[in-house]
Amino acid sequence: MNDDKTQYKAFIELVESSKKDLMETCGYDEIVIDDFYDTFITALKKLDSIKKIDAQEHLMAVLCNHDSANYLIMYARFMAACFLKKNAILYEGFVGDVHAFCTKEVE
User: Fold this and answer.
1) Which residues contact 89 (CB under 8 A, 6 or more apart)?
2) Do the domain assignments include residue 87?
3) Structural domain includes residue 103
4) How far apart are CA 71 and CA 94, in angstroms?
5) Could you tell me if residue 24 is inside a domain?
6) Which stretches within the chain are classed as H helix?
7) What pTM, to 2 d.p., does this model score?
């Protein structure tokens, strides 16, 4: 159980730092990502108060809410696009121009 909390806290820290990374490294404007980030981090932090046995029910409630689910997915897309852009050399052989791929397919 303690290991779960350690991993959870590490994940929260990773997501919290992702906003700065998206803006500074990948060039996203804060106004573009702010609402998506707020929804994402709020949903993650709420998990701390959910009992393990209720996690599946909570997840279904969150993901079945069309509005919040779209915000969660969009922020995950921003993070994925930023990762691809930062590691473009690893993926350009598969997708060609990584920045164009991210704009068209990921974001």
Assistant:
1) none
2) no
3) no
4) 28
5) yes
6) 2-24, 30-46, 55-64, 66-86, 88-95, 98-101
7) 0.87
Residues 6+ apart with CB under 8 A from 47: 8, 55, 58
Alpha carbons 66 and 62: distance in angstroms, whole number: 8
Tell me which residue range forms the domain holding 38. 2-75
Copy the structure tokens of residue 68.
């919040």
- The pLDDT tens digits for 53-79 are 888 898 888 889 888 899 999 999 999
Does residue 38 belong to any structural domain of this protein?
yes
In the predicted model, is pLDDT for residue 1 greater than 70? no
Instruction: Report which of residues 52 and 91 the model is more confident about.
Output: 91
Whole-angstrom Cα distance, residue 43 to residue 39? 6
Q: Give the total number of structural domains in the chain.
A: 1
